[in-house]
Specification:
Layout lengths: L3 E6 L4 E8 L2 E9 L11 H23 L8 E7 L3 H18 L3 E5 H7 L12 E6 L4 E8 L2 E7 L5 H11 L7 H8 L22 H12 L15 H38 L3 E5 L6 H14 L2 E3 L3 H4 L4 H12 L18
Parallel strand pairs: 1-4, 4-5, 6-9, 9-10
Antiparallel strand pairs: 1-2, 2-3, 6-7, 7-8
Helix pairs in contact: 1-2, 3-10, 4-5, 4-6, 4-7, 5-7, 6-7, 7-8
The protein binds 5'-O-[(R)-(carboxyoxy)(hydroxy)phosphoryl]adenosine and zinc ion.
Length: 348
């Protein structure tokens, strides 16, 4: 008997649905919301409305592509936490209604566990125990995975997430939201060693990115001559703009290089402390080409086996919810209809 799962992801600004049969992904549809770009960030109310418009066509497309219909589904999975509460509500209510109407079990999935388990989608998978560096717009974590359902967060950011560090830096440079992919693009033609930004000294395996943001702010206000606070900054707005225009590639490359080194130095420390050599990346920021390259190079140097999910499974998607739900289904870890979504939820 095979197990067919319909999964729904709606935690932020992507509406996604996926079908997974026995741990194999048959479809993964993602509707991106473009409505937020002009506001410089995700507007929660607009996100909820867009989810309501997108959810039926996205589920329909996922079912059709997989050659399934609602009668062949064995369980309905959804992202229960964390995320924007209004966005989570749309997916949760839809999943609960389907579960009630079809008489099929409900599986509640934690979004961060799902980002990690995206590494179990391809045929070539890490062996347990493995480490995963999860880097997204809302989280930065090092997770120790002993089994699909036994995960422990051993390091995380104490302030901004890595994606926020990219997006906030981009905003300071006058780039539109989300700025992460744009920094990546400009960095490709830049000199990583041109400008120096400080590496924070945070104990243990935790991260911090807020100091970097402040240092970039002062650096720009001084038109690159210094990144310390001055009573009177050295550049007026026109000079700052000119400095950015003339040096954009090198500034982006230097910022990206520092974010990547903050991430990978802690990952290296975690690998040394745990003795684990199967190491994964996950989350939207793992689409960053500088991070992917440096992660792979570090893996070769340290003799790790490294894993990065395919691009469509790095950013928010329902396939990662489906694969996580599959392992929860095997353990009969079902939710009942009284379950509510949660904007924040501890795990690991
Ligand atoms: O995992 P994700 O899709 O959504 C969250 O759960 O947050 O991650 C989104 C984040 C954004 O901050 C975005 O700027 C960043 O991932 N991102 C990138 C790149 N592609 C997406 N950051 C740097 N370089 C990229 N190529
Ligand atoms: Zn995410």
């Amino acid at each position: 008997m095979s197990t067919c799962i319909l999964a729904i992801e709606s935690s932020c600004d992507e509406t996604s649905a996926s079908i997974c049969i026995d741990g194999k992904i048959l479809s993964n549809f993602i509707a991106n919301q473009t409505v937020h770009a002009k506001y410089g960030g995700v507007v929660p109310e607009l996100a909820s409305r867009a989810h309501m418009q997108n959810i039926v066509p996205v589920i329909d497309a996922a079912l059709k592509t997989a050659g399934c219909d609602l009668q062949t589904i064995d369980a309905i999975a959804f992202t229960q936490a964390p995320g924007l509460i209004g966005s989570l509500l749309v997916g949760t209510q839809f999943a609960k209604s389907l579960s009630l109407a079809l008489g099929k079990p409900l599986v509640a999935v934690h979004h961060m566990q799902a980002h990690v388990l995206a590494n179990l989608i391809p045929e070539e998978r890490p062996s347990f125990p493995f480490l995963c560096l999860t880097v997204s717009g809302g989280h930065t974590q090092i997770v120790l995975c002993e089994s699909p359902n036994k995960l422990k967060v051993i390091g995380e950011t104490i302030d901004d997430a890595a994606g926020e560090a990219f997006d906030k830096s981009a905003k300071l440079l006058g780039l539109p939201y989300p700025g992460g992919p744009l920094i990546d693009k400009y960095a490709a033609a830049g000199n990583v060693a041109r400008f120096k930004f400080p590496e924070p000294q945070i104990p243990g395996l935790d991260f911090s990115f807020s100091g970097l943001k402040t240092s970039i702010l002062y650096f720009l206000k001084n038109a690159g001559t210094s990144n310390v606070y001055k009573e009177e900054f050295l550049a007026d707005e026109a000079m700052q703009k000119k400095f950015i225009e003339e040096n954009l590639n090198d500034i982006c490359a230097s910022i990206q290089n520092r974010i990547v080194s903050i991430l990978l130095n802690k990952l290296k420390k975690a690998a040394k402390e745990t003795g684990i050599t199967d190491i994964c990346l996950a989350g939207g920021v793992s689409a960053n080409s500088g991070l992917r390259k440096a992660f792979t190079a570090m893996g070769e140097q340290m003799q790790w086996r490294t894993f990065i999910p395919a691009f469509e499974y790095c950013t928010d998607n329902a396939a990662m919810i489906a694969i996580t739900a599959y392992y929860k289904f095997l353990e009969k870890d079902f939710a009942d209809l009284s379950i509510s979504p949660s904007a924040k939820a501890e795990w690991g």
